């Protein structure tokens, strides 16, 4: 988050939005209201402040960016647990999470806080472009809830704050995300060079392609992926480590704000705390000559010379950007949908000859996609709903 945006958020929050600054790790009221009349349209300054707060909550729900961002990656088979100082991390890795797990609670309530903030903007903004950005973020938050919990209540901006909402099925969640994203695709601003840090119509197209891929709808997935590719706004990088030109949407992480910390736990710098290396099965996909070899590094982890492989995709300085969508995913989705030329084009740049499934696993590693792919392929593990959430809403027990 840029410093000036944080200052704007602080100033507006102190005047109008005291609840905005309650940490997501505290007791969360996902239906809390902005302290202005419900019919009052928001000023541009307030709109911008609310958007910054929304982005921040997606970046680092509960101020626990290590785990909220990494949860489903830890579930998947791309990481090797090298050290777990916290038993909660070991439970997450082993698929043995109890309902009273605090990290699980952070994820659930944190993303509903983001949804609540999006709902406020959608119901009160005078700007269709701002509403479109909020709808994109709301869809993204529901995708994260699906990623972790599979089923989750849908909290619309028109819902009674006291309503005990039923769980929505995956199909219903996907339908709701699609509804939001199609509105966002109509009203969000067009992508401008370097403008990947805020939702755009192209970002909405890309997320639509991913959701239709998860739904196994090749026609729609391929159509939306091709829209992004045909915009010619993004290019697959010759050097995979220099991927800014590939980014469709990402959120900036800063060490100052503490919202980009997950890169550090995927490095040897935190080997004495909670640390993850790259799993051998993932690293085995890096064949001789593959340009993605620059994204992996072998490092010594013990005094007697033992080594492990680490990803270098993210910064180790606790300022990792949060990658949401890159153009390479669109090539792989288009190829999956039947356009074989897109796989050829992609593999020519990467100097690779893997199967499509293996290309997805390697290329999109640590970008929230592997667990989604495993679920699509039949993975059945679901963590429980947090104990407090189930106590407050008995519908989660049904």
From TrEMBL:
The record, for Gene3D superfamilies, names: 1.25.40.390
User: Which Pfam families does this one have?
Assistant: SusD-like_3 (PF14322)
State the signal peptide span: 1-24
Any idea where the SusD-like N-terminal domain is?
Answer: 48-212
Query: Which keywords fit this entry according to its UniProt record?
Result: Signal
InterPro entries for the chain:
SusD-like_N, TPR-like_helical_dom_sf
Name this protein carries in UniProt: SusD-like N-terminal domain-containing protein
Q: Organism source for this protein?
A: Candidatus [Bacteroides] periocalifornicus
């Amino acid at each position: 988050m840029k410093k000036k945006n944080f200052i704007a958020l602080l100033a507006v929050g102190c005047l109008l939005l005291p609840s905005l600054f309650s940490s997501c790790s505290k007791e969360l009221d996902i239906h809390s209201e902005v302290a202005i009349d419900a019919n009052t349209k928001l000023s541009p300054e307030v709109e911008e402040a609310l958007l910054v707060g929304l982005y921040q909550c997606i970046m680092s729900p509960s101020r626990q960016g290590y785990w909220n961002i990494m949860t489903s990656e830890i579930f998947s088979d791309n990481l090797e647990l090298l050290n777990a100082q916290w038993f909660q991390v070991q439970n997450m890795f082993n698929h043995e999470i109890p309902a009273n797990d605090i990290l699980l609670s952070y994820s659930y309530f944190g993303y509903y806080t983001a949804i609540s903030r999006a709902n406020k903007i959608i119901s009160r903004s005078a700007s269709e472009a701002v509403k479109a950005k909020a709808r994109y973020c709301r869809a993204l938050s529901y995708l994260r809830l699906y990623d972790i919990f599979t089923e989750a209540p849908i909290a619309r901006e028109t819902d009674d704050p006291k309503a005990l909402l039923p769980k929505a099925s995956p199909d219903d969640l996907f339908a709701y995300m699609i509804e939001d994203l199609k509105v966002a695709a109509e009203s969000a601003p067009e992508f401008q060079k370097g403008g990947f840090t805020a939702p755009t119509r192209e970002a909405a197209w890309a997320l639509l392609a991913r959701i239709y891929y998860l739904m196994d709808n090749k026609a729609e997935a391929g159509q939306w992926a091709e829209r992004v590719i045909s915009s010619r706004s993004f290019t697959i990088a010759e050097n995979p480590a220099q991927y800014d030109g590939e980014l469709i949407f990402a959120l900036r992480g800063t060490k100052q704000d503490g919202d980009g910390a997950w890169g550090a736990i995927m490095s040897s710098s935190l080997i004495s705390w909670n640390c993850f290396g790259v799993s051998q099965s993932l690293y085995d996909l890096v064949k001789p000559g593959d340009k993605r070899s620059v994204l992996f590094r072998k490092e010594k982890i013990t005094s007697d010379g033992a080594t492990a492989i680490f990803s270098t995709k993210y910064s180790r300085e606790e300022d990792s950007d949060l990658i949401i969508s890159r153009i390479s995913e669109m090539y792989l989705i288009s190829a999956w949908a039947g356009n074989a030329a897109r796989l050829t084009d992609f593999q020519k740049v990467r100097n690779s000859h893997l199967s499509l499934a293996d290309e997805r696993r390697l290329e999109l590693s640590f970008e929230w996609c592997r667990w989604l792919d495993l679920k699509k392929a039949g993975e059945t593990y679901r963590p429980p709903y947090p104990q407090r959430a189930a106590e407050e809403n008995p519908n989660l027990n049904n």
